[in-house]
Amino acid sequence: MEHGDILPVLYDISVTIGGETKLKPLLTRTLQRLLYHTSYACGFVCLDMASCSTDDELLPFRLDAAVGDFDMLSLVGKTVMMPCALVLGAAAQETDQHRLLEKLDFTRSHYQAFLRLPIEDIGVIVLLSIKQPVTRLPLTKILQPILAHLAKAIKLCRVNEAYTAELLHHRLLLSKIFDSSYSGIVITDTEGLILEVNPAFTQHTKYGKDELIGTKLQNLLRETEINIWDLLKKENHWDGEIQIRRREGGLFQARLLINPIFDDYGNATNYVLIFYDISKQKEAETKIHQLAYFDTLTGLPNRLLLIDRLRQAIAVTERTQNYGAILFLDLDDFKTLNDTKGYLIGDLLLIEVAKRLIATVREVDLVSRQGGDEFVVVLQDLSKNATEAARQAEYVAEKIRNTLSEKYILEGHETRSTPSIGITLFQGKKQSVDVLLKHADTAMYQAKKAGRNTIQFFDPDMQARLEERQKLTEDLEQAIRQNELILYYQKQVNSHGGTIGAEVLLRWKHSKRGLVSPANFIPLAEETGIIVPMGTWVLRQACLQLKAWELRPHTENLSLAVNVSARQFRMPDFVNQVSTILHETGARPTNLKLELTESMILENVEDAISKMNQLKLYGISFSMDDFGTGYSSLRYLKLLPLKQLKIDQEFVRDMTDDANDAVIVQTIIAMTKAMGLEVIAEGVETKAQHDFLEQHGCHNFQGYLFARPVPIEEFDI
């Protein structure tokens, strides 16, 4: 290059630099023009270089561009080891640099000269040649404007490429979203002509993409939904649920969102439609509704739906003044059927009962299952006259009773079942739903008491008794916490009149009712399960009393008999409860006697024997209470670890006047002697009874002849 060539050369290289928008072509084309005009053989560009500590140091540098050397061309984009003295430093044009350039072991050429052109703080251009090109021009100075121009161009290219890469990334991302979205996406023109669909939409509709492109979207919407497109032209947006056709002709439920795409002038040019298949969601909602409001076994409305429909029926009677009726049904002896034939047969019977009920009443009437074997029928649109409405309700109830009493064939077995039906009428909002259902339930309870398989209308007196019973139950639940329970003790004596112990008897001193008879609250406690915590309390108090007696010489050997309820005895942890109470109170186990009834033991003989044997190991003894009033199975009696039999007062009362009772008492006494058991008679009230028992070998007694049950403060040893 001569002096006159400088301006054309600078212009040529400047044009080259200015014409490139991408970095790699910019560097390559600039190198090509520099090599051409300077006569160097090859060159390379390195950008973003690290600094060196010494010139002799070899460091890795990345080759960002190379021209004129095949070895270098193959390494573009890779890192190679180069001497710092070659790459770093000010602009320089050097010859006779064999020793420096031979360190470029990545090329087979033996270069002698180089021209180093720093590109400001961005990088460097290094031109190499075997011989120094002949020129008198100071190339490092001449090319300085070009290098400054190149530095700006590199920065611009990097900004442009970063922006372009971001655009491509976003475009690719949008494309992936479009293609991989689970929701169906459709792009249409303003008339609904389909221009593009994503794979999800084709999967949902079963149409091929080619079949959809160019067709009207309206053709896929259910006829009633086509007006959506008219709404779009007015509102530019739509969001709602629709039904879409599938290729095979079926429909699926979808949620659809439609939004417009506007041009620069605010005019809609296209619409983007996003479909969400909500078929499974709708199925789940239907299933949840079914589970919430319908009985899973029979498919009938459950109590929740019954209450809602009954409120509606009451509102209708308020308006029309026609009566309605509630029929409360309970299947007689259903538990026995379940226990004897199994739950499968029981379920099949309930399903068949539901079918017969639906077939018996009108479509306007409601049949509901409350749970278990209870059903409710709501009759509507009866007469405005109460007497006539009652007659109509009774007619339907009788029809139901006869239908349900017919035989059932379940799993090849013939079965029969009968209902007890309670009826209550309603008209208007005089009474709440809960009250009406309670009245119908009470009437059903009356039907049960009347002998079952009968029909009864609601009786207010019966309801009052049930409410009183419910109040008594609530009070009984509070009795232990409010310290209303107290223990009475009735002494037990021997032939000499000496006290050998006592039986613990529970009493309830109600804060308002006074002393409540055990006949009123013990059966209620058994039925409701309150007897279990109550029995535990009694046992603990008895053991505390035993401990107190043990501290005095004249009472330390007295025993206490404690009645155990059937529910309490059946508890799996009964043995553990008793042992825990003994441990906590410190009572002597040998002074504790548990009284069990025959019926309680015979419910599960193996379990009873196991529990009795475990407790016997602690020293606890057992007495069979009310012996002779049950089945008196002698086969099981000999297996039980009993210490004592108690003759029931039912036999003691009349034994001096009734020969049968006398024989029974004598037999029990003789049997206890033969089996080595003790015997005690309860309910001894006269001297004649005492003498009879004594004469025939019974020497332990309990009854009014010796003492009445009294609180511990009045107990006389």
What would your notes on this structure say?
With 717 residues, the chain is of the alpha+beta class. The protein has four domains: 3-161, 2-Layer Sandwich (Beta-Lactamase), CATH 3.30.450; 182-282, Beta-Lactamase; 296-458, Reverse transcriptase/Diguanylate cyclase domain (Alpha-Beta Plaits); 475-714, EAL domain (TIM Barrel). 45% of the residues lie in helices and 24% in strands. It contains 27 helices and 29 strands. Helix 16 packs across helix 17 (460-479), helix 17 crosses helix 18 and helix 19 (531-550) packs parallel to helix 21.
Defining traits:
27 helices; Beta-Lactamase; five-stranded antiparallel β-sheet; 717 residues; alpha+beta; Alpha-Beta Plaits
* Structural class by secondary-structure content: alpha+beta
The overall pLDDT, averaged over residues, is 88
Mind summarizing the main beta sheet? 8 strands, mixed, barrel
Q: Strand sequence of the main sheet, in spatial order?
A: 20-21-23-24-25-26-27-28
Poorly predicted runs of 5 or more residues: none
CATH architecture of the largest domain: Alpha-Beta Barrel
**Full CATH superfamily name of the largest domain:** EAL domain
> Terminal Cα separation, in Å?
141 Å
The CATH topology of the largest domain: TIM Barrel
**Spatial shape:** elongated
Strand content: 15-25%
Radius of gyration: 52 Å
The proportion of residues forming helix, as a percent range, comes to 40-55%
Total number of beta strands:
29
Number of domains: 4
How many helices does DSSP assign?
27
Main CATH class of the largest domain: Alpha Beta
